[in-house]
C-alpha cells in the first residue's frame, strides 16, 4: 500500500521469496516518482494507481502499508472490514529475522536520524556489521540480504510503530517527546502510546535506553532493563547510565564508571546532540564495545546532511543548513546551539499551525535578525512583532533570504525553518540542497574577480 522507497523495497523482498504482490498507489501514475516506477517495471508485480481498489484488499493475505497512511483513513477502515492484517515494513523485517539479528530501534520526536546514524557509525567502525535503516531513508527490507548482520540499527517513526504490533527490539531508545503528528494519530495520547508500544513488548533480556530528562519518556513502563541517559548534574549518582559531568561524557555499567570524551571533542554541535551522543554511548556499551572504541569513533562522526550542517563561510559569514527542523522544537534546539544574540535565522515554510510561544522566546534570546519565507511568514511576523521582536526581513524566495543574510553580516546564517517544506519545495531535503547551492553560488560570486 503506497509506492514509496519502502513500498518498492517490500515488493522486491517479497517477490524474491515467491510471494504474489500487488502495489496499490493513491496517486495517479504520472504523479509518481519516475525512478521508483522504473524499479517497479523490473519486478514481476501487479500495480494500480489513482486509488485503492476493493480487489487489493479482498485478494490479499497481508497488507504492508506505507507509514504515511493514517489508521483512520478510509482504506484502513476498509482493510479492517475485510479482516486483513495491516503491518509496517519494520514489522515484516522483525518477523523475518528476529531470531538471527539483534534489533536496535531509535525513536523520538527529534534527533532520531542523527542518533541512528551515529550508533551505526560507531558499531561499523568497530568492526560490527550494523547498517542504519528505516525512517532514516533506507528501507529496512533492503538491508536483510546484506549477509549475516550483527545488528540492524533502525530509525522508527510513530507512524511505523502504529503498524508494528509485535515489534520488540533488543535495545530500544527513546530520545524525547514533543507534540507532533497529532492529526495523523488523532491526539497526543495516541502519539505517546505509539512511541511506548515497543517498550511494552520488550522482555527481561532486553534494554530500554530512556532520556531521564524528559518526564514522559522517563515514565515509560517496560520489563526491559532500563539504561538511562541524562545531561542533568544529578545523573552521575545513578547505578548505571550515560551522563554529562563537568563537560565530559561518560557512563556507568557493571559497577564501573568510564569517561568517553570531552563535550568539546564532538563534531556535532548543540545540547541536543550531546543528548544524542549519550544515547549512542549507552547503546554501544550495551552492544559490547569498549570505551576506547566508542571514544575513537564518536569523535570523528560529522553531522548528517540538513541537520545543523555547516555549509560554508562566505565573505566572513558562516552558513548552517538545518532544513530537517520541520517543527518549532527542532528550531529551538538549533538556536540553542549558538551563543546568545548571535544568529540570523531563516524560518518559515508550510505552517503546521503549532504554538509559536516557545520559539519566539528562543528567537529573542539567540537571534539578532529573522528572515521569513513561505506560507507561514505572515503569522510568524505577527507573532514576533507582538512579542516585541522587530528585526524581521520577509523574503519571497530562498535566494533572496540567502542574499539578505549575507548582506546583514551580523553573524552566522542559520536555516532552521520550524515548518514543513511543501509550499516551496518537494521535501526538507530539496529545501536544504537548494539552500546549500545558493550559498555556494554566493561563495563563487564573491570569489570571482570583479570586472
Question: Key features?
Answer:
451 residues, alpha/beta, Rossmann fold, UDP-N-acetylmuramoyl-L-alanine:D-glutamate ligase, Protein-Tyrosine Phosphatase, Chain A, 3 domains, 6-stranded parallel sheet, 6-stranded mixed sheet, 17 helices
The count of helical stretches stands at 17
- The assigned structural class equals alpha/beta
Q: What's the CATH superfamily of the largest domain, by name?
A: Mur-like, catalytic domain
Instruction: Summarize the main sheet.
Output: 6 strands, parallel
Widest β-sheet, arrangement of strands: 6-7-5-8-9-10
Assign the CATH class of the largest domain.
Answer: Alpha Beta
CATH fold-level name of the largest domain: UDP-N-acetylmuramoyl-L-alanine:D-glutamate ligase
CATH architecture of the largest domain: 3-Layer(aba) Sandwich
Number of spatially distinct domains: 3
Total strand segments: 20
The mean pLDDT is 93
Low-confidence stretches: none
Task: Report the C-alpha radius of gyration, rounded.
Answer: 23 Å
Task: Report the β-strand fraction as a percent range.
Answer: 15-25%
How far is the first residue's CA from the last residue's CA?
57 Å
Short overview:
With 451 residues, the protein is an alpha/beta fold. The protein is 36% helix and 19% strand. The protein has 3 domains: 5-87, 3-Layer(aba) Sandwich (Rossmann fold), CATH 3.40.50; 90-298, UDP-N-acetylmuramoyl-L-alanine:D-glutamate ligase, CATH 3.40.1190.10; 309-447, Protein-Tyrosine Phosphatase, Chain A.
Describe the model:
This protein has three domains: 5-87, 3-Layer(aba) Sandwich (Rossmann fold); 90-298, UDP-N-acetylmuramoyl-L-alanine:D-glutamate ligase; 309-447, Protein-Tyrosine Phosphatase, Chain A (Alpha-Beta Complex). Strands 6-7-5-8-9-10 form a six-stranded parallel sheet, sandwiched between helices. Strands 15-16-20-17-18-19 form a six-stranded mixed sheet, with helices on both faces. It has 17 helices and 20 strands. It has 451 residues and is α/β, with parallel strands linked by helices. The termini are far apart.
